[in-house]
Task: structure prediction
Amino acid sequence: MSDSQTEIKTHTPYYKMRYVAYVLLTIVSLGLPFVTIDGHHIFLLSFDHMRLELMGTAFDMQEFYLMPFLLMLLFIFIFAQTVIGGRVWCGWACPQTIFRVFYRDWIKGALLGMNRRKNKQKDKKMGAGEKRVKEVIAFSIWVVLAFIAAMNFTWYFVPPEDFFVYMQNPAEHPILLTIILVIAAFLIYDIVKLKEDFCAYVCPYVRIQSVLYDDDTVYTIYDEKRGGKIYDNDNKIDERNECTGCEACVTVCPTHIDIRQGLQLECINCLECADECTKVMGKLGKPSLIEWRSKNYFKTGKLSLLRFKTIAYAVLLIGITIALFIMGSTKETMLLNINKSNRVYKIEGNTVSNDYQFLFTNTQDDGHQFMFEVVGRDDITIERPTEPFYIASEMKVKKVVVLSTKEKIGKSQDVTSKIPIIIRAYAVDAKDTVFVTRKTIFAYPPLKEVQ
Result:
């Protein structure tokens, strides 16, 4: 037995590796919404509570400055993996592809024994009545799975612990119910009727890939040197070339293309054609004519993964990730907005007062008593409020604050002085851990106006 024959027989089919990836991604997708760290989710974008939870850390709406970085990280990652491995996302991780495999290959194929593209004779022998019954069974199973998938999607925006409470009285939550119904209806139509046409004609990613590819991008490619350019001879197979013309690669393709014509927008890199060609050529003791390779591989025999583009994408991904961790680690333990009132100041004898509006937000999981102080200014006192005030978890409280001074801290006889001050707000029972500082000004009138 030759080395090539041994390699062919021990080669793990791509479809088996894809199925493992599909199962793992499905488990992660279903399980991730239930995973929490210190009571916070790994990822949750809650419009109900106006909060982002990321890696166990909660961010209030005013801290949504992280979202652009998350989106940049997502898109740059997709672009990077496209430059390196072509449309590997489409064939190996896209929900559209995973759902189609569930419905087409596992429900209709493995479970019900119909629509087996690799054994169409068995499908043809099936009676019309039997086929109709199995179609209804397959459709019914997919309807159930579509609703599960729709609910799974909403769990990233409505946490499961709230979702199941809401669904006990769905009529009281019409928006959530409508979203689930719309998503489920789309998935049913998409997977049963639209099928792979979604990949070829609807998905915008297919148009992006052609811009990102280069000669070192790894994708599903047919070896013309060995197989020959069969379409240059009126579709006739040249006996001098290795391609047998069996068209197994065409029959098995989910997007109904002929990979031998070269790179096409419809190709989703599922590599089912490579698996079929491996079987056919393996019987002849030869390696597959269709491989996951690059154009330059057939010239040099090497895959060039480290190049300027990939290094640049890696630097961007690492930089954005570091920025996310830095900003996440400096997250404030509470929120405070300070607005100066329209009245610049008030004078009563030798006392000058300034009015403010403080908007406090308790982002902690527990309620606290809160108060604040003017940092480093014994000459400016808090006139109002005089006592700490309670704020429940995730609640906002607006307070009218009056700061005053009896000292002549102004700097000019003729114009108003704007004196910078620092406000430190804190939880009374956790003064050193739950606090925030803000800069504002204290307006002091011209000295000639003060007694």
